[in-house]
Each structure stands twice: as C-alpha cells, then as structure tokens.
Amino acid sequence: MSISAAMVKELRERTGSGMMECKKALTETGGDIEAAVELMRKQGLAKADKKAGRTAAEGTLVVAAGDKAVALVEVNCETDFVAKGDEFQGFAAAVAASALTASPADLDALLAAPLADGKSVDEIRREKVAKIGENIAVRRFVRYATSGGVLASYLHGSRIGVLVELDGGDEMLAKDVAMHIAASRPLCVSPEQVPAEVVEKEREIALANAVNEGKSPEIAAKMVEGRVRKFLNENTLLGQVFIRDPEGKQTVAALLKGRGASVVAFTRYEL
User: Fold this and answer.
1) Lowest mean pLDDT across 8-17, 22-31, 138-147
2) Which of 29, 173, 180, 249 is the most exposed place for a label (fewest CB within 10 A)?
3) In the chain, which residue ranges form alpha helices assigned H by DSSP?
C-alpha cells in the first residue's frame, strides 16, 4: 500500500514523532493508522505520544555560531520552570549545534539529524519528554551561511532572537543592526518586500479613516498615500529610525549607506 503524505501528517499529529518514524510505522502496518499508533507505543513511544497534544508554549531560543555560519533554533516546553532547567537548556543547545553542523534542509531533516549516542534529535527529544514529564517540541530553526558576507546574531534574553547578514560593514555594525531588529520588529528589509495584500489593507484602513474625518476625495487620496508611506517606513528595516541614534533622526538606511553596507537578509524569532 502506498503511504501518502496526509497519512504521515496525521500520524505525526497523533504521536508527535518524526516523519521517518511515522512513515516506517505506517509501512509496517500496511497504512493502518490506529495499528501504527499502537506499534509506536509498543516501541516505547507511549509516554511521548500521551503528552504530544499538550501545549508547549514556553521554551527558549538558542544560537550556535561557527566559521561563516550561524543557526537560531526555537525549542518549546510546557512550563517556564522546565525551560530554565539545565536538562532542557542542554538539549536546546545541542539541537542548535546540530542545526549548525548538519546544515539540515528543513525541520524534518533537523529532527532526523544525529545528536548523541547514535540517536537522532527526535529520538533524544522523546527521551527528554519521558524523563522530564512535559511535552517538548523543536518548533523552528534558521541557518545562515556566507562566503564573503558578515553574520551576526543577537539574543534578548531567551525569548527574542535575531540573525542578520550584511554585505559590507563589520561584525559590530551587524550586531547593532541585529539589536535594532530585535527591538523594532521590522516586517522585512525594504518597502518593496512588503506583501501587496498588507499594503492594500493599510491603504483601505487609511482611506476609511480619511473618509470618516470628512475629507474630500482629493484630500483623502493624498492622505492615504502619505499614511501608507509612513506605515512602510515604520515597519521596514531601512525606513526605521536607528534605535541607537542619540538624536533620533538617522534611519537604518542612512546608517548602512554611511558604512558602505547593505542587508542581505534577517530573521527575527519571538518565543
């Protein structure tokens, strides 16, 4: 019997296990999901299976950095108490190191990557679930690698993490930009990158506000464009005022231009 992606997805949701383990169980049971769940429980996954549906809303963000590469990983658990414990923190750090060195293509590949004692990230994760007694999930990760750019990371506690890559500049500048991104939450680098539907929604809101203020169609149209332009500047990295400018006037675009640098990409995670 052919094992479909939908069947694997359903079993993953039921058990909280990795894609490869789910596919293997479905293959062994001829595509019978209930039998696959039972098989996985018999193989020692019962405790992880039982807790997989519980909300993992706490956790931590961890950065692992190497030569010309850096990774940011979010690992979740159920309580702040566990999130601060050495057992959980050690696991999260190990997952970040695996994301850095294994260079996985996606989350499934990271979960299947080797971690310790010949076991995968997901196998160790399930062992931690059984030992700690809480649902634990590797939620997401991002990895940057460059041959000639400048990479930097910034963690604000354990709840906000940023990676940034610059073309030009230096590590100090990249770190400053990463700190700015953590504080100012830009949607993307430049106005051109803002999704058209987001811009259109802001335009609709601005027009409705202008009409409610009793403006004429001509005045309303001018107000709409001005408000949309303001929205784009306030919500894209290059248009924002740099947080460390003491006079509050220099934009990030001006800062980068003065240093002969540009932003290649950035990622901001918030727990």
Assistant:
1) 8-17
2) 249
3) 5-15, 19-28, 33-40, 46-51, 80-83, 86-102, 107-112, 121-132, 171-184, 196-212, 217-235, 252-258
Q: What confidence tens digit (pLDDT) does each residue in 215-230 have?
A: 777 787 788 888 888 8
CB atoms within 10 A of CB 27: 12
Token representation of residue 222: 């001018």
Do the beta carbons of residue 250 and residue 151 sit within 8 Å? no
Q: What is the pLDDT of residues 61-116, one digit of tens each?
A: 999 999 899 999 999 999 999 999 999 999 999 999 999 999 999 999 999 999 98
The whole-model pTM stands at 0.76
Beta carbons of 219 and 210 less than 8 angstroms apart: yes
Residue 31 backbone phi and psi in degrees, to 5 = 85, 5
What is the distance, to the nearest Å, from the Cα of residue 191 to the centroid of all Cα atoms in its chain? 21
pLDDT digits 0-9 by tens, 116-146: 888 999 999 988 988 888 889 999 999 999 9
Task: Output the six-digit token pair for 75.
Answer: 């690992």
Write the DSSP string, 247-260: TS--BHHHHHHHTT
Cβ proximity of 110 and 103 under 8 Å: no
Run of H or E residues at 70: strand 69-77
From residue 180, how far is each of 162, 189, 240 by CA, in Å? Answer: 10, 12, 9
Measured CA to CA, the distance from residue 56 to residue 128 in angstroms comes to: 14
Measured between alpha carbons, how far is 162 from 179 in angstroms, rounded to an integer? Answer: 8
Give CA–CA dist 161/268, Å, rounded: 6
The b/e string for 231-265 (b: 16+ C-beta within 10 A; e otherwise) is bbeebbbbbbbbeeeeeeeebbbebbeeeebbbbe
